[in-house]
Amino acid sequence: MLDIQVINQVKDVLSRLSSSFIFRVECDRNSHDAVLFSEFVEDIASASPHLSVEYHDGEAFRFSIIKDGEATGISFRGIPNGHEFTSLLLALLNADGVGRNLPDESLVRRIKALNVDIQLRTYVSLKCTNCPEVVQALNVMAILNLRITHEMVDGAVCPEEISRLGIQAVPSVYANGNLLHVGRGSLGTLLEELEERFGVD
Asked: Is 154 helix (H, G, I), strand (E, B) or coil?
């Protein structure tokens, strides 16, 4: 699915990884989309000896990132291609502590002070230029706080869900099933909204 030039670029980006990562894929292996999406995940995994893929039965295609046998809290429904490609690479680098957009200590303390289980889900379009900033910020929160999980959802793979939720703009962020944020947003802005919604210790 990815051409050799892109895979070589990914190899260079991921050459700093030192931990072992697994892409834990859940899908219906007979689905046409699952076959195509699996090729994408396999191509990324081929770019580093620190990456591997394992498959489990499921319905909608999704994969989560496991680091050294432990969940990072980050998952993707659909594939993070297009503008979200960087979000996947940064998720791996940040989980390994070698990323470039990790927050300063004051923000880290505030993220860790969210002492409640928070399930975040961001609906995106792969053509959206504002979506990656939000996805990457929430991925960082999931890495830093074990009580937070974050899933990026490509709206194109779940049109019925998009219709049911009445989503008209992306990114749209849901926290524990309720709308939290719509549109562009920095890590600081999103953190303030989570603090207001859930409180801090």
From this structure: strand
Residue type, 77: R
Does the predicted model carry a pTM greater than 0.85?
yes
Rounded Cα distance between 119 and 147, Å, is: 8
- What is the full per-residue pLDDT of the chain (201 aa) written as tens digits? 789 999 999 999 999 999 999 999 999 988 888 999 999 999 999 999 999 999 999 988 999 999 999 999 999 999 999 999 999 999 999 999 998 778 999 999 999 999 999 999 999 999 999 999 999 999 999 999 999 999 999 999 999 999 999 999 999 999 999 999 999 999 999 999 999 999 987
Listed in sequence order, the residues at least 6 apart from 168 whose beta carbon sits closer than 8 Å to its beta carbon are none
Rg (CA), the chain: 16
End-to-end CA distance of the chain: 46
Q: Using omega within 30 degrees of 0 as the cis cutoff, is the peptide bond preceding 80 cis?
A: no
- Number of Cβ within a 10 Å radius of residue 105: 7
Q: How many residues does the chain have?
A: 201
CA 159/CA 156 separation, integer angstroms: 6
Number of H helices, E strands in the chain: 7, 8
Residue of 40, 76, 38 lying closest to 152 (CA atoms):
76
The secondary element (H helix, E strand) that includes residue 107 is helix 105-112
Residues 6 or more apart whose Cβ sits within 8 Å of residue 138: 120, 122, 148, 150, 173, 190
